[in-house]
């Protein structure tokens, strides 16, 4: 018996099966909200992911660096799950498109430029899609006194 004999033979069945499994997994793990919102700038449901991101960034920045001097990072990027990737694909999107369509890098640049976050506590800032506003973010980070 072939190792992949459990997979549907028809590619359309595979896609449908994969999406159905991701949706079922999201509901089982109580992540049904991942199926009900998007992070895109034109989305009426944008507040949920953006507020989560803002909360994470502020919490991490306020905690500051570890007392032992180790480096730490602020991850200003959308985390992926099977369900969120599936939903993104249903929207014809990708991880890089999600960043562009949400203007996340621009938002982080504004946080830094306007000192919405405690910039003196920043160490490393991770982003996806550095080609979308990465130079602007770098310029803002370089302006931190």
How does this structure look, described?
There is one protein chain. The protein is mainly alpha-helical. It has one domain (11-142). The chain is built from 6 helices and 2 strands, in the order H-H-E-H-H-H-E-H. The chain has a two-stranded parallel sheet with strand order 1-2.
Largest sheet: 2 strands, parallel
Rounded mean pLDDT score: 78
Beta-strand percent range: 5-15%
- Could you give the count of β-strands? 2
> In which order are the strands of the major sheet placed?
1-2
Low-pLDDT sequence parts: 1-14
Structural class: mainly alpha
Question: Alpha-carbon distance between the termini?
Answer: 65 Å
**Could you spell the SSE succession in H and E letters?**
HHEHHHEH
Give the % helix.
40-55%
Helix segment tally: 6
Rg is 19 Å
Shape descriptor:
globular
**Whole-number count of domains:** 1
Detail the topology: elements first, then pairings.
Layout: H1 11-28, H2 47-63, E1 73-76, H3 82-90, H4 95-102, H5 104-113, E2 124-127, H6 134-142
Parallel strand pairs: 1-2
Helix pairs in contact: 1-3, 5-6
